[in-house]
Amino acid sequence: MSDDYSTLEVARLLGMAVRSVQMMVDRGEFDAWKTPGGHRRISRQSVERWREARQHRSESRPAAPDTASPSAPLPLTDDGLTPQVLLIEDSVHYQNLITLLVKQKFPGVGLQVADDGIAGLAMAGKLQPRVMIVDILLPGIDGATLITSLRSHPQFNGIQLIVVTSLDEAGRAPYAFALAGLPVIHKTDLVAELPAHLAGALARPVAQPA
Q: CA neighbours within 13 Å on the CB side: how many for 17?
């Protein structure tokens, strides 16, 4: 077994986008260096430490309370259509996982997916979704900047926001200004926590733009 990985290998191993792994390297979350050819190599030991820390966190953290039943009927939008959920996530792995969860738990919901912040912001304006599920580490516009932009426009007041991330609490600290008051789900806890949070968001009355 090799003592180091490429960024692509780590991305596949952890189910992340390559860009997310590169950003984690830049923040010092992995021990890494560059080859004479300019390619990043990441220490296998540091990757294993990261996985063990996330696993320990997942096992010690209680599941989100089941405050709303995912199978309960969902309120229609004002025009009688089923509610829309917009997922902004650049990792194909997590796009697929969240899509599967939504289809299984909320078959009456329409799910749209954007894989970068710029496209997501444009889709939010067109769709006016009931709920947005937003990753923090995104190409184009990061999730925190996107959320701040949404909150500054009254037309988005009715959108419920759920944040998903691979960052631990220390890694989220620079984005605290945008995440205040929002549910934040670590990606290792998606299966356990996302359905309850999404059910609660969908069940809330639709706020009218100011």
A: 19
Helix axes 190-203, 92-105, angle to 10 degrees: 60
pTM comes to 0.66
Query: Which of 164, 112, 162 lies closest to 138 in space, CA to CA?
Result: 164
List the structure tokens of 56.
């320990």
State the Cα–Cα distance between residues 52 and 40, nearest whole angstrom.
22
Q: What is the pLDDT of residues 113-163, one digit of tens each?
A: 998 888 888 888 888 899 999 999 888 788 888 888 888 888 788 899 999
CA distance 102 to 142: 23
List all residues 6 or more positions away from 62 whose beta carbon is below 8 Å from its beta carbon.
none
| Distance separating alpha carbons of residues 87 and 191, to the nearest angstrom | 15
* Cα 20 from Cα 16, distance rounded (Å): 6
pLDDT in tens, 170-206: 888 888 888 988 999 999 899 999 999 999 999 887 6
Distance CA 123, CA 105 (A): 23
Dihedral sign, CA of 189, 168, 180, 159?
A: negative
Of 63, 66, 18, whose CA–CA distance to 39 is shortest? 18
Q: pLDDT band for position 70 (50/70/90)?
A: very low
